[in-house]
Each structure stands twice: as structure tokens, then as C-alpha cells.
Amino acid sequence: MYCHVLINSVKMKKVMIIEEEADCKHSLTPIMHSFNPVTTVDELLKAQVDDGNVTSVKKKRIIYSEGKTAASIFYILKGKVKTSKWNEEGKELITGLYHEGDFIGFNALLDSGRYRETAEVIEDAELIIISRTDLEYHFEYNSSFLRKFLDILAANIAEKQEQMLRMAYSPLRKKVAEALLITYKKYNPSNKGEFSMNISRCNLAALAGVAKESLIRTLGDLRDENVVQIKDGKIIVTDIRKLEHLIYCSDGRSNI
């Protein structure tokens, strides 16, 4: 038999993912039922939707917190989410940006069952909640599904490690350019022309790993070099080739 958490209302679903509230107000009761293991990720997501394990989460709400026991992972149906860590001085470093079609929280499955980051909604989101118990059941009875899921996990880890390495040893201009390019590619997958980034300066600075004041100053330089425009608080990438050149040329200067 398989223990599956059945969430009886939208209110309870919200409580489930806002861990600070769940810890002090509610507990969830697993019920027993049997079902056939899925063979694809799409089948897994459909099964969760059919069971009603979908919730809407408002901007600035916490989905899970660093150090908490990982009871679930999440799939983003719509909206935007960031993951971040905080150092001892209270400085935030954004470790990932996520949107529709992304999983979050599953790195904890390989890390003693605890979340290593905090996940926060930065644009109203709709999430599918997948319990850890559910995943373990499917992994146990379907090795092909396990391999497919591990492929997703491996790709996510490799991308994040490459990003962190580039930023750790880059000068200021390259760090800011890298943060802009990550945001551009993440939220503009179709690579359409000029792309407007509706991301706060605080979040962009935390993604780049620089002070907000340094970010603003560098954005001003990039605007003067016609790499970006700034309009109504939004950052518009006007020349993606120049932006990429800033990252990959040796001195962080655009010569094209």
C-alpha cells in the first residue's frame, strides 16, 4: 500500500506549501490507496492534477525554506519563482530563476531530504505539488521513470554549477551581464527581438551576486553603450550579441 497526501481544499494546499504556517497551525493526514506507477513525467503530472494537487500562490510567498524537511517537490504551471540562499551577513544570493515548465525542490531528494535553498514566488504562480512518498513509490516500481527523472535533475545541477562558477570569478561587468543573459534566456526562450525584463533591481543584484548600487551603476553604463534600455523601471535588452560578447570576451568590454 502507498501513503498519499490528499489535500482536501485550496486553503489546506496553501498551508502545505507555506511551511511557516503549516508548522504552527495544521497537520496533513495521509490516507492509504493503491494505483499503478506512471511511466513518464507527463503521466505523473496528469495524475497529480487529477488528484487535485494544484495550488495558486501569490507573489512574495515562500514555497519552502532552506533547512526544512523536503516533503514535496513542485512543478510550475505558470508564474515565476526564485531560489536563494542567505549568508551570515544577511546578503541574498539568487541561485536560480524558474518559470512555467520547471521543477523546483527536487535537489533535496539527493541531499538528506532537506531543502538547501529558499523558494519564493516573484510572479503569481500555480504549482503542482508532488509528495516525496509519491515519487519514491514510482521510482521503486519503474526504473525507466527513475532514469528520466534523474536526467532532469542532472541537467539542472550542471546548469547551476556552470552559472555559479562563471559568476564567482568574474568582474562586476561580467557578473551583471551574466545575470541579464540568464534572465533573458530563462524568460524569453523564443529569443524574440527586444525583450523587457520585469525583475526588481534587488533580485537582479542578488542573482549577479553584487551590491544593488553597483548593479544600478553598471546598468547605466550598459544603457550608454546601447546594450540595454531602461523604460518605466523595466530593463529592455536591445542587443543580445553585445550582451553575450560582454560575458565571453576577455576584458568584459563590448567591441562590436
UniProtKB/TrEMBL annotation:
Listed Pfam families: cNMP_binding, HTH_Crp_2
Residue ranges of domain Cyclic nucleotide-binding in the record: 63-136
Species this protein is from: Chitinophaga flava
Superkingdom field: Bacteria
Residue stretches in coiled coil: none
Calcium found in the keyword field: no
Matching SUPFAM superfamilies: cAMP-binding domain-like (SSF51206), Winged helix' DNA-binding domain (SSF46785)
Gene3D superfamilies: Jelly Rolls, Winged helix-like DNA-binding domain superfamily/Winged helix DNA-binding domain
Limits of the HTH crp-type domain: 170-241
Record's protein name: Crp/Fnr family transcriptional regulator
A GO cellular-component term linked to this record: cytosol
Ranges that cross the membrane: none
Keywords: DNA-binding, Transcription, Transcription regulation
GO molecular function, one term: DNA binding
